[in-house]
């Protein structure tokens, strides 16, 4: 939020000589992040003056419209003659007064202004926009000064546009919605500096009347618990927004539109109450406030036609929705150039509803930004009074005597606070009197003594004999104060975070890594050593991911946990497989020019527990009971830890050393083997078997088994999945459940033999459908104890072997621990191994 110090001074008595550093520190001490404090007087140097446009010549023959202007800048240019300036903006006319920077001036960012030849004319200076002066983000046109501006051509323009002020740019946290207003920031500075604060919301405002300003029906009092409106008739449609208001809006980054609309924005910035101005003559019939119906559409003020959701709140007339409530108005009822009758609306909306609507439609308006953080429900009538007085003062017209106020706001709930709780939680001594004074400074109503609500003090963390118990009713502008912990935070914040001592806790003796932690690190290290790059994906997924991956209807990965408040409506559920987010990262890197990718992730997936309800409501004022813990834990989804890899492009690059090799299904299978080896799973327990499992290609998918249990799958992705996700052909992947692996067995120390090995190669011819891993197991079973190792080193197929046949060549290593093997012993062991392979698969020695 951007706000000028001069505006703040209207409501808080800031010292005249207050340094910017002290102002910043005061806000930081209260927990408000200060992005910047800018003294606007120093941002623009050199001659910045008011100019009056005398002549405009439209230049043609260029790619964009260009205007050659002659501007009266008085004696500021030293000659009194008209200044020649070339300008591309078109939002001004002859006779308008504008802001001109003359040669020698320097704009923010070090942009120096001089005289130069351009578009066939000499341009000596620049007619400035708000963005060029650093006053805001509006660059759609230059600043046109209001007609009532008292400055004459040649006068210094800094006071006219607010460049003689100091601007605060603040980052407001989501729980401090009241601080998104001049009223809120002024109150905070009053607390910080101990100076008087005048609350503009205490201005007198008439209440609702029996006759409404306009007939309105609120059908959903949860989404809208207060709706107020007032009418102003007969305004001057040509009335201009006063210069001082335009200036403050510009500093805040809001573009001036028209007098009624500018007033709603001004009141929003001043009081924190978002408002809306309707053209009363463009409304048909009474207004109805309700939830949107399925399929309803509304074209909002930004010109976008939006399809509404049933959770959205809308304001309707007889023609249908005319406003997306609390977010943005509609085109059909907006104030236009000929508007004479204005209906001002000020309401109070459900913050959760507004936040979801804004994210759903990607429409983060200034109003929505305030509503989702919480707005004071006591403001509507005060805001309406402020708005109608401003409109009649500057636009004429008459205020209707009728006032609509449909009020269903619930009173603020009292919070029971042990007076010593801040001291116990923070470690700083706060007397009961100090706690009461600080909470009253916030605006709370505090009653000391026995609990007048009749609640059990033990249920709110009050020990027997603990002392005073405070009943604290938060003010209406602080909906975030709902628990004792919130009040403790306010006490600490106002008393000063700097008073809290820094005490490091004593670190307990460590027990080292658990077996699971060691296994996860070993798996990560193994994949990284093989060239895979670790990524960390968000655990969120789209609802259509299961369809994109081609998962069957009964696949256990289809049911997903839906988030109550997702970061994005496009990814509202928790992932049930690592492959979805991981393939999204693969696609993003491919789009950025990477072609050869091998990525891996180790993370949790989330499977909902069937038949569970909602978690129990638990506060923060006490420790949950064992029963509450058990009930909450029963709702938590099962979260096994998986590891997954994805590959695309070349796994071995080509170069002067020879041809490269594209990554394929075998590399994904090998990654699974590497994971199992790193997890200390004995090779005798590992089995790789052909399988059909989505989202893999049915003919290029392998199941990874440990001791007969499937723990994962690997292979090439299904062509339909690759096409749907727009991935390269033959993209391969592996996913494995680390928690499904048995504990690593205790391995005996290896026996190292000093005797030489006997190396024998065997090439077996057999049916190509027989997996190489099963052949290897047969060789191991037949060779006996003398076999030290077996490795597949060649796969060969040719017409000479026969159709559907192939040759698998293995290197067998034999060794005895106590002697050198004879040729006869090694050959006998080889023959025994081949015999088992022949018995199981009909294998024959190649060339035999």
Q: TL;DR?
A:
By secondary structure, this protein is α+β, with helices and mostly antiparallel strands. The protein has 6 domains: 2-41 and 167-198, Phenylalanyl-tRNA Synthetase, Chain B, domain 1, CATH 3.30.56.10; 44-162, OB fold (Dihydrolipoamide Acetyltransferase, E2P); 216-407, Phenylalanyl-tRNA Synthetase, Chain B, domain 3 (3-Layer(bba) Sandwich), CATH 3.50.40.10; 416-499, Phenylalanyl-tRNA Synthetase, Chain B, domain 1 (2-Layer Sandwich), CATH 3.30.56; 515-612 and 624-740, BirA Bifunctional Protein, domain 2 (2-Layer Sandwich), CATH 3.30.930; 758-845, Alpha-Beta Plaits.
Describe the protein's topology.
Layout: E1 2-4, H1 5-8, H2 20-29, E2 33-39, E3 48-59, E4 66-72, E5 83-87, E6 97-101, E7 106-107, E8 111-112, E9 115-118, E10 121-124, E11 126-127, H3 158-161, E12 166-171, H4 182-193, E13 216-218, E14 224-233, H5 243-251, H6 259-271, E15 276-279, E16 287-291, E17 297-299, E18 305-307, E19 313-317, E20 320-324, E21 328-329, E22 342-349, H7 351-361, H8 366-371, H9 380-395, E23 398-407, E24 415-418, H10 421-426, H11 432-442, E25 445-448, E26 469-473, H12 484-495, H13 515-529, E27 533-534, E28 540-541, H14 545-548, E29 573-574, H15 579-591, E30 597-604, H16 626-635, E31 641-648, E32 650-652, E33 661-662, H17 665-678, E34 686-690, E35 696-706, E36 709-717, H18 719-724, E37 732-737, E38 758-767, H19 772-783, E39 787-796, E40 805-814, H20 823-841, E41 844-845
Parallel strand pairs: 13-16, 27-30
Antiparallel strand pairs: 1-12, 2-12, 3-4, 3-6, 4-5, 6-11, 7-8, 9-10, 14-22, 14-23, 15-22, 16-19, 17-18, 19-20, 20-21, 24-26, 25-26, 28-29, 30-31, 31-37, 32-33, 34-35, 35-36, 36-37, 38-40, 38-41, 39-40
Helix pairs in contact: 2-4, 5-6, 6-9, 11-12, 13-17, 19-20
